[in-house]
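Dear V.,

Thank you for sending over the compound details. I've combined the ligand you provided, magnesium ion, with the protein sequence from our construct and run the structure prediction for the complex. I'm sharing the raw inputs here so there's no ambiguity about protonation or stereochemistry in the SMILES, which I know was a concern on your side last time.
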Amino acid sequence: MEKFLTVVIPCLNEEKTIGICIEKCLKIFKEYNIDGEVLISDNGSTDNSVSIAEALGARVVHCVDKGYGNTLRCGFKAADSKFVLMGDADNTYDFLEIPLLLNKMDDNIDMVIGTRLKGNIEKGAMPVLNRFLGTPVLTFVLNLLYGTKISDSQCGMRLMRKASLDKIEFKTTGMEFASELLVEFVKHKFTITETPISLLKGIENRIPHLNPWRDGMRHLIYLIKERFLLF
Ligand SMILES: Nc1nc2c(ncn2[C@@H]2O[C@H](COP(=O)(O)OP(=O)(O)OP(=O)(O)O)[C@@H](O)[C@H]2O)c(=O)[nH]1
Ligand SMILES: [Mg+2]
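Below is the predicted structure of the protein with magnesium ion bound, written out as structure tokens.
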């Protein structure tokens, strides 16, 4: 029988934090009596991420194609549940807040996306450039071009109906997948709502995978190109 919830966590060398993320999910499954599974979509980690995940009882799928988008797409495909929740492996999204997203989900909703900008951002958790330029600009452009009304398009913690995901044919492979996912929901006339969530600081001295200018531009180019292909 299909499960209720699969938490899909994309992972590339996150041995310091992957364990905390999985433990938080399991705690919530237990506390709220959720028939859930943690699914790690690993993108070729060379550290101990995979063994840590397996030791904690998470299911691991290995995604050979590089990139954040490819990794999530592998995870979505492997999920077998009514709902899929995505969130990063760097302990910046707080999986203890899964119930906040579940509470907002109902029969009329296809995606609940978190909003860090209306929630609580731990000091130092989001670089100033992302917070006051990158995220607001990309969110503004998405809302303008696609008629959405969300406040944090770059938020990577999202709860979605698996049946909706299955109807989408994704094309992007990198960080711009975060935008494509929203655009595809709009194109399919799926409903999106949001809920405030926290952003944690994660760990000190982590080398970010994100390259703000390059990835920001990839989002922007995707959003504009796709809009003019569409209508
Ligand atoms: N950036 C990136 N992340 C990947 C990739 N494959 C898997 N991931 C995972 O995707 C998640 C998001 O990556 P992050 O580097 O945290 O990206 P971000 O949150 O946008 O930016 P920072 O936290 O500021 O680096 C993490 O859990 C990564 O381990 C990849 O090829 N690139
Ligand atoms: Mg991160």
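A first observation: The longest helix spans residues 128-146.

Warm regards,
I. M.
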